[in-house]
């Protein structure tokens, strides 16, 4: 199978690649959102700890 | 606690709810009006062609019944929650699931039963064949108690929330789907003169399942909503 | 004997263990994904559906995940309700958005597969319809938890809803199946593959494994976040952030 044939997907390129593309996007988004949420809460806690540390 | 006292508590609460409802008439009359108006909208929306109406009638009447039943749910625990009597019920020595069953029964008598009695009228408006009318009433008789029981779970979960109405419909409507499917199909099939035994037994099974499981679920949900 | 079970109730312990698991789940995911993708595209085309059947290798695992995650959610919610275990509550609410995402994915990829097969983007096929209702159940769960301010009440109310949903899913699934066969003209045969060839089964199982490990990975991250959020005022979290 040549490269162009592979990307052509026997005429179903639009459907096949959209499906795989969307799956990739959704999975990356799930991962990044999870990471971002964790980063936010970590920063929040770190700020609070730093503040209370400087007070005492 | 013995059997008779549980039963008498059930009747007392049922009577109290019915008396209260007699004073606040709009609470249960309005959903019925809604039921009629929604069904009236369909011929206006899709045209008055009798055969087309007959084709759609089971689905339209049942969806309208579903929405009407859901619309009245928000009132089920709300006023008792606001005046604190719900809290009294929960801490009373009687089993909460029996008390809940009394409240749900009153709710069904006020919203489900009139729906059944009104349905022949709407069947005529929708040009439903006369063989299908008994089937419609039978499915409503089996289906609406289950709707009230399942809906009461949602009402109990959202009673503490200020704007619970829309959320309630989001929670409850997906759970209504099996009842809608079997009931509407029974009415449609009855119009063709075929047997509807299978559909009716599914509806009866769903009703039995909700009678056994819903009261204790509602009780648990009420305890959670009142705990905060 | 049940010591490990009770240690699961300790957020501090779970936070540490989950952190140690993360590199392994991440690595295993990439391994499964790469091999799964390789076999997905090296399998010979289907004699009926041509190349378009390759969509199944993402569609079916996503649909499996959508059901599996709901079960996980309800199970965790039930454990949280019965044993009053805070950790289980956190797992339940961390799992919900992942499950909703997979359900949406299953719906859209199903529609991408259906377009060349059926000629339209959407048919009221039994499986797609069930999947759509499942999405509503997920959204209801998420909306209910978002509407209740108190975390503890939100978790318990969500658990009740998830358990009611679990009882209803088989009923909904069965009734939709029944409804579909009733309205299905007898001439149209189902597009399901009657017997799965081994060259299809391998990528399907690899992709399903990859999705499952991905779920575990993101669930661990989200649970750790949830632990930090709820425990941020406790000593051990403060200790963690002191340098």
Task: Tell me briefly what this model is.
The complex is a heterotrimer of chains A (56), B (228) and C (243). Chain A is mainly alpha-helical. Chain A is 88% helix and 0% strand.
How would you describe this protein?
Chain A is an all-alpha fold and 56 residues long. Chain A contains two helices and no strands. Chain A is rod-shaped and about 70 Å long. By secondary structure, chain B is mainly α. Helices cover 85% and strands 0% of the residues of chain B. The model of chain B has no long low-confidence stretch (mean pLDDT 90). Chain C contains eight helices and no strands. The interface between A and C is medium-sized, with 30 and 36 residues.
Q: How are the elements arranged and paired?
A:
The complex is a heterotrimer of chains A (56), B (228) and C (243).
Chain A (H helix, E strand, L loop, with lengths): L2 H6 L4 H43 L1
Chain B lengths: L2 H21 L2 H21 L3 H22 L3 H8 L2 H7 L4 H30 L6 H27 L6 H27 L5 H31 L1
Chain C lengths: L2 H5 L3 H32 L13 H28 L2 H33 L7 H22 L3 H33 L14 H34 L3 H6 L3
Helix pairs in contact in C: 2-7, 3-4, 3-6, 3-7, 4-5, 4-6, 4-7, 5-6
Query: What is the straight-line distance between the termini of chain B?
Result: 29 Å
Number of domains of chain A: 1
**Helix percentage of chain B:** over 70%
Oligomer: heterotrimer
Which two chains form the greatest contact, residue counts included?
Answer: A-C, 30 and 36 residues
Query: Could you tell me the mean pLDDT of chain A?
Result: 85
Encode the helix/strand succession of chain B as letters.
HHHHHHHHH
